[in-house]
Amino acid sequence: MPKATETILEIDLNALDHNYQYLVSKLGPNTKVLSVVKAFGYGSDASIIAKELVTLGVDYFAVAYANEGVALRKAEVKLPILVLHPLPSSFEVIVEQCLEPSVYSRKMLSEFIDFAETHELKEYPIHLKFNTGLNRLGFEENDPSWIWELLSKTTSVKVKSIFSHLAASEDLSEADFTKTQLKSFRNISLDLIQLLGYTPLLHASNTSGIINYPEAHLDMVRTGIGLYGFGNDPMETKQLRPVATLKTVISQIHKIQPGESVGYNRAYRASGFEKTATLPIGHADGISRAFGNGKGWVTIKGEKAPIVGNVCMDMIMVDVSEIDCREGDEVIVFGENPSAEMLSSAINSIPYELLTAVSQRIKRVRCRK
Q: Of 55, 143, 186, 312, which is the most exposed, with the fewest CB atoms less than 10 Å away?
């Protein structure tokens, strides 16, 4: 890749291919893969990511909200798309765009059946989500008979899958809790399948579930963060490659005298003769105000440059006193070094937050490294 001349987010499709194949290698031949591309593909570009995954043989996509599914349809992604958190206000667009809603409550099921019948739909695919311990969204364990009571009176919808979500699959100290979740999900599924008279797809595993609980792979697995290069475990992350690399350039270099301050509120004061570089990226681009003043760093010519002063809306300043660099030089904000995991840990955060915070005003550039 040529050196960056502006702030860009590189999307490495070869890294995505590698991560997908690595995760698939953990699965049996009959287990389907649902790729999660919500939040602009975890801050990258959902359409670019989805189109590449189609070529790799993915079976399903998932997004959080209906408008994310619409964006994929506009990009001519034709595979089934599960909407994980639909709202009644989005039913119209869900059906128009052939998206498939997760139905997670009695109210939601009643309202979607009413909508489907009003629009004379036949066997429209829905996905039933059950709460087995995350306590976020989902039907309860005693709901299958109530669900069947509604479903038995209509042909407007058909259950495409039954699923749940693991709360702590990355934490092996919580293995007993995870196994309890899985047992609960198996019981719920068996009850519902008996009532339905057919077997929808069953899925409960996220990326950590794929890695840590082979018995939970079932008919399909869901993977999000693993596709983008993070495995929720240092040893697994070593097997993956970061898809996104955030790059920028040095706009200006300043020589700072002892006692001089840098940035707003004079938050940083030089203890000696120092050199700072100003970079055209700030909190409007996803660099949290929690960084700066000793928290976080970027890499210039392979060397660590700490973020100094307060993060500005469109700029940050970094200490380059010990780095031989010039205005216009390339800067790695995160990628391989520092990784999004390293950088986010500096403010007690996680890669998800850093990746998804990258502003849409930053140019996306696809590449193959």
A: 55
